[in-house]
Amino acid sequence: ETSQSLIDEIGEILETAHSSTNSTSAFSSALEAIDGQLPRVERGEQLKTVLQTVIAVTKQMAANNQNLDECLNRSRQQIENLQRRLELVRVEANTDPLTGIANRKSFDRALQQAMEVALETAQPLCLLMIDIDHFKAFNDTFGHVAGDSVLRLVAGTMTKNVKGRDLVARYGGEEFAVILPMTPLEAAVCVANQIREAVMAKELVAHKTGKRLGRIHLSLGVACFRRGETREALIDRADTCLFAAKRRGRNRAVSEREMDDGRLARNASAA
Q1: Second label for 42, Cα 20 to 30 Å away, from 58, 131, 239, 256?
Q2: What confidence score (pLDDT) does residue 198 get?
């Protein structure tokens, strides 16, 4: 609807511009005709007639210009309104309506762009995959309204614990993701634990009854982008670390380095 309105507005501007061009041509032709009459003017009455014609066509041109100016001002205001509407639509299309953070679509695009920048600049890029521990049980016990409050709380806390260049997104359900550009693995693990501790520090209390509902625990997986890998591969490695955190008792962050060290330890033990 907004796009069609913009097209219509541009069409109106073009039509007005075309009309203005015609008016300018007519004004120019009138002046040329008057210029041709001037050498033949011999009496005051003739000069008076010529001057009246000049005044008439000049007034008409001034009126046309004023009409054009008003039309262009209206169009400018309308286009500015349409631009604001388009920006709102763009934000809504990329925002999770419940939590107010980036949605999956926005996350996929941002991660792809971050990977391309990391390749160009040779800067590290890390990804956190995050899951709320025992969220289904919490929902079943306290209801979906309380569950939605938990999701909003986690999203808000995560946003407060990252930098401006980082992106927090709702990946799906109770799973979140954080893109950390220009961040090495060790620093990403610190961010992960900072988020986990900040969320765990908040005790949930029912607004109506004042009943204490407990604290939120998160499991996090941390992976660093490797040159040449796909977006799906990076997400899969971070997810693998997340599942490892779940297996190791939840409420912890596990990085790909720990996974590699664990495999090395198992191989050494087998040998």
Answers
A1: 58
A2: 97
